[in-house]
Every structure is written in structure tokens, then in C-alpha cells.
């Protein structure tokens, strides 16, 4: 599933091409792709809307229109493609937006897990999300207090989008290794100094991911280079870049998790 750096990359790549375009029509090819409103209302409301801006909130792509916001969650296999409007739909296209300038925006989703919202109030979708890792609200002090308020294992808590928005499996493993914290350590055991290290690590790995256009580890996301710079993720059996100890894989909260048993210990 694309995480914050991958979705940020989509937003940055799509923005120069799409901003200023007008949506002429919508072809909803699988109705369940649409979370809200109804297919009929969606087609009526989106027609004639001008694209004003493209941004991101957590793992959601947010396309700001004249009167609405088109919000897209790519989930496991979603992809967004700009094509000439004369090109025939692809097999797994779930939504096609015909645009001015002979362009179309296709939401292609093999596994059909992705979802789309058209809303005039973004808080209908975003209200339960935690703070952004690059926001002013996300400080070492906030993180330390929030960790102690939850008293959960670190990795499942960091993956919880209501706690902190944007982190997924890859960047959580990378940040915990950089901060020398074990994924199963309880959040209320983290000291203020460790919280500061984790805060710095989260921002560092996300910035590195964005700088390298995210990570491409399977067919669902293309063009990223961050997979070539992983510290521990997907590196089971190889040497830790810090101490040389063999990286191990374990299951934490039903998620494959990669750790260095020397750098990351549980007290």
C-alpha cells in the first residue's frame, strides 16, 4: 500500500499536468470504487469542475476542485494515470475522468480496494486522522505524551492512522530502527529522549522517501528508488548497516516486521 512518500509523489507529479484542467465528464466503471456520493450525484456534481490544486493528507490524495474535493485512497493496488482521452480504457480502470485539453485521468485498481470520495467538506473523510508528521502539532513533546497516553506496542500504534497519519509498514520499520526502538516495546516505556529520537527518525525517513519518489517493491507502485536505501525493511538475513548483525523478520500486530536484534532491544 502506498504510504505518505508515495502519495506525496503522486500529488507532486500530477499537479503540473492537471491543475487548471476542467473535468468534462466521469465514467464510473465499478460503482463500489465510489464511497460517496451516489454514482448519479457524483457524475452530476463533478462535471464542469475545474482542478485548482492537488495535495495530500496522510495516505489520501486530495484533488481540490472549484466546489468540491475529490479524495482518493489508493489502498493495495490503486494507480493514477494521465492519458490522452482518445486512448481506450484499460482492463482494471475503475474511474475515468475526461478532462479539457484532450486528457483523461484514470484510476486503475486491480484488486478493487481503492476508494474515491467527492465532498464539499474534507473533514467527512479526514476527521479521525492523527497529526501529519510534518505539521507544527507533531513535536517531540507531543509524541512523548501521546505515547504514554496509549500504552500499546510501538509498531501497531505508529501504524494507527488515528494516532499519527501517513506511516505504513515500510517507514515504521525504518524509523524504529533509526531510533533504536524495538517494535514490540510498549509506548509508555519510551523516555523523553527516545521520543525525540523517534520524532527525528520519522521525519528523516519520510523526507528520504519523498526525495527518492517513494519505494517501489512490487507492481502496484512504479518509479520510486527508496527501496535501494532500506535500512531493515525487506532485508531479512542481510547485515544491519549500523552494527552488522543479521536482520530478522518477525510478526507484530499481524504485520511482517524487520528488526536488528542488536540495535533494537526490548527492556
Q: Which short descriptors sum up this protein?
A:
28% helix; alpha+beta; five-stranded mixed β-sheet; 7 helices; four-stranded antiparallel β-sheet; 267 residues; 2 domains; N-terminal domain of MutM-like DNA repair proteins; Helicase, Ruva Protein, domain 3
The number of helical segments is: 7
Distance between the termini: 31 Å
Low-confidence stretches: none
Question: Radius of gyration in whole Å, from Cα?
Answer: 20 Å
User: Which structural category do the helix and sheet elements fall into?
Assistant: alpha+beta
What would the principal axes of the Cα set say about the shape? elongated
Could you tell me the mean pLDDT?
96
- CATH level-1 class of the largest domain: Alpha Beta
Oligomeric state, counting identical vs distinct chains: single chain
Number of strands: 11
Number of domains: 2
Amino acid at each position: 500500500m502506498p504510504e505518505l512518500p508515495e502519495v506525496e509523489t503522486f500529488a507532486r507529479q500530477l499537479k503540473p499536468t492537471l491543475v487548471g484542467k476542467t473535468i468534462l465528464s466521469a465514467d464510473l466503471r465499478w460503482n463500489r470504487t465510489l464511497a460517496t456520493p451516489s454514482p448519479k450525484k457524483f457524475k452530476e456534481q463533478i462535471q464542469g469542475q475545474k482542478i485548482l490544486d492537488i495535495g495530500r493528507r496522510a495516505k489520501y490524495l486530495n484533488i481540490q476542485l472549484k466546489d468540491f474535493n475529490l479524495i482518493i485512497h489508493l489502498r493495495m493496488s490503486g494507480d493514477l494515470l494521465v492519458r490522452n482521452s482518445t486512448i481506450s480504457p484499460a482492463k482494471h480502470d475503475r474511474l475515468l475522468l475526461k478532462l479539457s485539453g484532450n486528457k483523461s485521468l484514470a484510476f486503475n485498481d486491480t484488486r478493487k480496494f481503492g476508494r474515491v470520495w467527492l465532498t464539499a467538506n474534507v473533514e467527512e473523510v479526514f476527521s479521525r486522522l492523527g497529526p501529519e508528521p510534518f505539521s507544527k502539532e507533531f513535536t517531540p513533546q507531543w509524541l512523548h505524551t501521546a505515547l504514554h497516553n496509549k500504552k500499546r506496542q510501538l509498531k501497531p500504534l505508529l501504524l494507527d492512522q488515528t494516532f499519527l497519519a501517513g506511516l505504513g509498514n515500510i517507514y515504521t520499520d525504518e524509523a524504529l530502527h533509526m531510533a533504536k526502538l524495538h517494535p514490540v516495546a510498549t509506548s509508555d516505556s519510551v523516555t523523553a529522549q527516545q521520543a525525540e529520537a523517534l520524532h527525528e527518525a520519522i521525519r528523516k525517513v519520510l523526507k528520504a522517501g519523498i526525495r527518492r519518489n517513494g519505494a517501489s517493491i512490487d507492481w502496484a507502485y512504479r518509479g520510486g528508488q527508496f527501496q535501494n536505501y532500506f535500512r531493515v525493511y525487506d532485508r531479512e538475513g542481510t547485515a544491519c548497516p549500523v552494527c552488522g548483525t543479521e536482520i530478522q523478520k518477525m510478526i507484530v500486530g499481524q504485520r511482517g516486521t524487520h528488526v536488528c536484534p542488536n540495535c533494537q532491544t526490548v527492556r
